[in-house]
Amino acid sequence: MIEIPVDLKKIDKKTKDHEIAEAVMSCRKTAAELVAENRHIDAMERTVEGLRTLREFSSYSDHEFRALLVGLLFDLSEIHFQLKDYKQSEKELETLFKVLENLIKEDADRFGKYHVLAMELSTRILRSRKKTLELLVKQQINAGALYDKVNSGVSAATDRLIDSLRNVGELLASTGDYRAALKFYSEAIKLSKKRAGKVTRREVKMTIEMAKIMMRVSQMRPRAKRLLEAVLPHAIALETIELEEDILALIEIIDTDSRNESTWKAFLHKVQKQSKKLINKKETDQ
Length: 286
Fold this sequence. Notes:
With 286 residues, the protein is an all-alpha fold. The chain contains 10 helices and no strands. It has helices at 16-36, 40-54, 63-82, 86-106, 108-151, 157-175, 178-196, 201-215, 221-237, 241-285. The longest helix has 45 residues, at 241-285.
């Protein structure tokens, strides 16, 4: 997680802005701690909360406000990268580049280095996507061979086939082919349930992974929420605390997204508009 210094002394302590800045910095700190513990879903929930809080800041042209925004966008892109959602990570990077583009024109000394770091993350995403595509071809061939063995009556191949189908689904999701990924996950869960004869930790985990993919398609978020709510009692019954926490965090993210999606777009539009006004004024004054 990238450290971006924020000068709280430049924000009047008596204003609500100071309180908002402290709250956002606290969200970032907690998210960094959660990432260190590999709790990326919880970290994402904290980052989304930070963005929601930041929207209440009084001045979108304030440099400390935008330093906080840059930090949160970096966090969100990095978390999605760690979750292997490269397509979403790229989308957040595009937004970050737009914000940085104007900031560099205003204060290159302070914000220029973050543009370089964003470029480094972009390169990492491209490399990971290339590697993912290479692995995808191998896994699809492997899944086909295992299907042949299962159909021939080799029961020991079923577990390996389930893992292979899940891997193909994960790789497809990483490339951005979400709908194809869901088909592979669905087949893996179906086979796994049939083999186990009941819902085990394995099926719960794969169902959560499937819901995460659905969440990446806005029209499928209500379905993802229903799926998570359906699997939550199984996670509780199995006493899998970490999976239960993941489910609750994902439901919270879905609820927040559905409430704030249009507001978030309007917020970014206002930030960009305010930045352009400042740059135009600066150029006119010169």
